[in-house]
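BUG: 3D viewer hangs when loading the predicted structure for this chain

Environment: internal workstation, default settings.
Expected: structure renders.
Actual: progress bar stalls at 90%.

Input used:
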Amino acid sequence: MVSGLGAWSLNVRNESRRTVEVFRGAVCDNGAPVATVGPWSSSDGVHPGRTRAVDIKHGVVASFRVVRDHYGDRGGRGGDY
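Structure tokens produced before the viewer hung:
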């Protein structure tokens, strides 16, 4: 996810039955998630911070991954995500 034009935060809207984790930077291996958004919900004002890895003038970069569905089952048919 990329937000430019002077943005300091992201609004994340999850319209699926799965849980979504939002991370700082362009990949999901930059530490703990900055937000966890449950099924059919949203989170406003997520502050992933600025990044130097991707050149976005006056914007923020975040990545996300899908963790599990509404019933507690893991996604990916037996995988962890």
